[in-house]
Amino acid sequence: MAHVYVSAVIDAPIERVWAIARDFNGHAAWHPFIAESHVEDGFAPDTVGCVRNFVLGNGGHLRERLLALSDVDHSFTYCILESPMPISDYNATFRLTSITEGGGTFVEWQARFDVAPEDEARIKEQVGRATFAEGIVALEAYVATT
């Protein structure tokens, strides 16, 4: 099983970052790879079990289910139901922690998934660097403008 872990610091209070990040369907507003997104069947984007259905800028299509959301822990966990990537059993967690000195926010985004050995390095780079790390940078920029 492959594991990807990315962490960073966003220079904003946790309440501001979480207000944006907790919206499971809000990534289209801040993530540079998301072209469009909607939650299926009219569910609210913070309803555990809801499915977000989205298209990437390159035309790729994904569906992900929200498995857990905690306003206390400032975290959510989700799984991929459909993806153009050659992966299976994908589960990811996005978590924020308040930095007590300075008022910033520590961000952790990690995933575990099965992938064929010949695809592992490429997919880990795609998920870790291109999706998680670039997403955190974009989230910080978005938080700064709201």
From TrEMBL:
InterPro entries, alphabetized: Polyketide_cyclase/dehydratase, START-like_dom_sf
Stored CDD domains: PYR_PYL_RCAR_like (cd07821)
Pfam family, one: Polyketide_cyc2
Protein name: SRPBCC family protein
Organism: Lichenicola cladoniae
Lineage, broadest ranks: Bacteria, Pseudomonadati, Pseudomonadota, Alphaproteobacteria, Acetobacterales
